[in-house]
Specification:
By secondary structure, the protein is α/β, with parallel strands linked by helices. It is built from twelve helices and five strands. It has a five-stranded parallel sheet with strand order 3-2-1-4-5. One of its GO terms (cellular component) is cytoplasm. One of its GO terms (molecular function) is rRNA (cytosine-N4-)-methyltransferase activity.
């Protein structure tokens, strides 16, 4: 049976080059995922080093615990949002760290798990409008699509999704939900299709609904406000000469 890949770490060589981990140092991976980047850091910091791995997705914590089992004495796994970075380190009695990593966005596992509501693939069309990175969170994409006013939806699609047809998509959503609640990814996809012209959909390299889905995901998980609040914390806990790497694309 073929083993599923949880997440493929991006820019691994460049990440390690900029973080420059050395034996005995302390690092924090704020987006642990499957532990791909963490493994490379752990190999560099050695038995005398320590890595704090944070992820708000309990599935990621379970997967990384398996993948990093041989480093168990060097890793502290924390199932939490990295917005609590400073408190997490205080609770661990860690006063300063040598390097911090953020790999922003959605993981391969989250995209490939249809019921999480992130996927635009056919197998994900019956999934509910979820998009939570932390399954314990109450707020879902369903709440945005069905209860945000048109103006707020339009701003969301323009600003977070950079979707040129954000206004038309917002209006189509409002008209549809006046008749009945929008419950699945497939239902939302049909509305986006109606609101966008064929030449726009067929001329794009990626999926034509990606920008709308990205905007919803970022709003559900409050990705920008969380990062804005966390980066000052990261700078505060870094030792002099510490390194901070943020991966985003």
């Amino acid at each position: 049976m073929e083993e599923k890949v949880f997440h493929i770490p991006v820019l691994p060589k460049e990440t390690i080059e900029f973080l420059s981990p050395a034996p005995g140092e302390i690092f924090v991976d704020c987006t642990l995922g499957g532990g791909g980047h963490a493994e490379k850091i752990l190999k560099r910091i050695g038995p005398s080093g320590k890595l704090v791995g944070i992820d708000c997705d309990p599935e990621a914590i379970r997967e990384s615990q398996k993948n990093l089992a041989r480093f168990k004495d060097q890793v502290i796994f924390v199932n939490d949002n990295f917005i609590n970075l400073k408190n997490i380190l205080q609770n661990l009695n860690i006063s300063g760290i040598d390097g911090i990593l953020f790999d922003l966005g959605v993981s391969w596992h989250q995209l490939e798990t249809p019921e999480r509501g992130f996927s635009l693939k056919e197998k994900g069309m019956d999934a509910s409008l979820d998009m939570r990175m932390n399954p314990a969170q109450q707020f879902k994409a369903y709440d945005i699509v069905n209860f945000y006013p048109e103006k707020k939806l339009r701003e969301l699609f323009f600003k977070l999704g950079e979707e040129p047809f954000g206004g038309k998509i917002a209006r189509e959503i409002i008209r549809a939900r006046d008749r009945k609640k929008i419950k699945t990814c497939g239902e939302l996809l049909d509305l986006i299709r109606r609101a966008t012209p064929p030449d726009y959909r067929f001329s794009r390299k990626g999926h034509w609904a990606t920008k709308t889905f990205r905007a919803l995901r970022m709003e559900v998980n409050q990705e920008l406000p969380t990062l804005e609040e966390t980066l000052p914390q990261a700078l505060e806990v870094l030792k002099p000469g510490g390194r901070l790497v943020v991966i985003s694309f």
